User: Fold these one by one.
Assistant:
Number 1:
Amino acid sequence: MSRLTKLNDMEHLMLNHWLDTHDIKLDHHTRNQFRDALAIARVFEKIHPEVVDLHSYIPRTSVAMMIENWKIFNIRVLTKLNICISQTDMERLAVGAEGAIESLLYDLMVADYSLMMRFDSDKSFNHFDNVD
């Protein structure tokens, strides 16, 4: 079953705000670049460098090789974030199917907020541990 679903209007608004926050313009050019998982890995590495290791990826131009990068991204990054995409999802991303990248970016946005909340709660917890 596909994890990449069509976003509703509210999800689109939330995603657009998150993209603006990170200076990401989702136009035809970036959508084309995002067909390769390396481009998405670079974006998420800037936001959460502890989650992504860019040494695992090679820039790809063929759909078959882009799917290989998506497999690596799925195993090394998405599973850490409790996101898992199917082979069909990877194929949709690699060919630039309509709405596929937006759906994945939305999932990454949710994961980003989750990681930020976890970091903030850890920081607060440690602060209270150090108070006498």
Number 2:
Amino acid sequence: MADPENPRHRAGDVTPRGFTTRAIRAAHRLPVVDQHPTSVPIYQTVTFAAADAAELGAVANRQVPGYAYGRLDNPTVAAFAAAVAELEGAEAGFAFASGMGAIHAALGTVLSAGDRVVATQTSYGTTRALLSGVLARLGVTTVFVDITDLGAVEAALAAAPTRVLYAETIANPTIVVADHVALADLAHRYGALYLVDNTFASPYLCRPAELGADLVMESATKYLAGHGDVMAGVVSGPTSLVHRVRDFQVDTGASLDPHAAFLAMRGLSTLALRMERHSATAAALGAWLEAQPGVLRVWHPGLDSHPQHEVARRLLTRGGGMLAFEVEGGRAAGEAVIDRLSIPVRTASLGSVYSIVSHPPSTTHRQLDDSELEAAGISAGLLRCSVGLEDLEDLLADFEQALEAAAKASSASHLGAAATAGVAAASQPRDLAPAPVEAPPVEPTPA
């Protein structure tokens, strides 16, 4: 008779099993744990065993709760998505392998061939490429507008039936702040869904779902995880709509790895603390930059000079850790500043504990042509800075020396160019000078 406690005996099988079989079975046997772990465990598995064929079919077809296959769902991933949804003030959430995976799924869920989108012209470059490229090839039309001009937004919505109004809470990279209350009202008045990318704000600064957004997307790679060591994305919203988003992910495959979900979830615990520090340091750095020679303009929601400062005061708990500034001298001057900074990392991401600086026209928005960059307000000398958690005094000193060094290099370059031009003119061979033109002889005037 089979011994149910003996791993070699199952379902009446009394035949002793071989070494390899026992090794495989032993390595996959779960320990018995009566106490609850204080952290969500990492369910690093692709499959989940069912008690019988009926349960497997019921779980796979979502007739009963449970897990069957990693692309369909995973307990660690589900716990992370649920935590983010709770912070967003939404009913449900579903996690993805990246922020763009989340944005693609949200848009792909609600759009079909022939649909129309009205989107902010200051959107993230890859989002714009998704709308103008991938979705356009599938028959979706997108109109880009100034999201701060409510009259222009309404005119675009009224011009033709629109399925989605798309905005970013704080725009990438020009730090434009969207008025979610007004925009959600406009979208719903014209029968459109209001979708929001909340990455630059995080749910600590703003919760668009509580302000009328139908779906909220986060690149958890950024502030939610917060340490620059994991990629993830989340879509939050009403349960019925999030279930449809989940179906899109199941069919397209941008599933989040459980270990990545665990790392991202770890970051949620310190989100509030980090966002307070990010916001305070960025506001102070922005105010300092405004007073510096060679800096033409600074964008940060906490500054009185910001065009949407009053909107930010109404909708954001703090100004956030992102700022942008334009330096005099265009791209060359901007790159000179970046090259002379020693604390910020030169890369294209954001939202980490360390500061990051980038040149959007050549990185995050490289897909845009000159006219699109101009329409989005992205000048050649624009720099984007994700302000980290370093000491403010160190950042101020670093930016000061970088601006001064870049200015000196630019001045020396101009002087060198002028001197070179002068030497070239002075050393021009005399035989290359044009010969004087002799006047023709004057014929005597007849008397």
Number 3:
Amino acid sequence: MNTENILVIGGTGKTGRRVVEQLKKKGIEPKIGSRNASPSFDWDDKYTWVNALNGVERMYVTYYPDLAVPGAKEKIESLTYLAKELGIKKMVLLSGKGETEAEACENIVVNSGMDY
């Protein structure tokens, strides 16, 4: 398997799991970002974020439960800032069409300077 440095946050969830499956079909073994992964990633514990993002070049992000919930924008903003600081080159954010809160999160990623 190719060990490209791709992180799938939410890689055990409904959408993230499908992304992981497609990457594996292409011979890529992604790093999984979830509370039960090693190292773990927990949206509610920023101390887990650095270990999960270390060594990653690209990432696919699903936010649980939804980008429209209060606090999502702030967490996406913090994660995006950290990703850029750690040298991550590309960030793809699963979003919802026409949702004002989701569009605000999208704009954070678009304006980050990273590929998206």
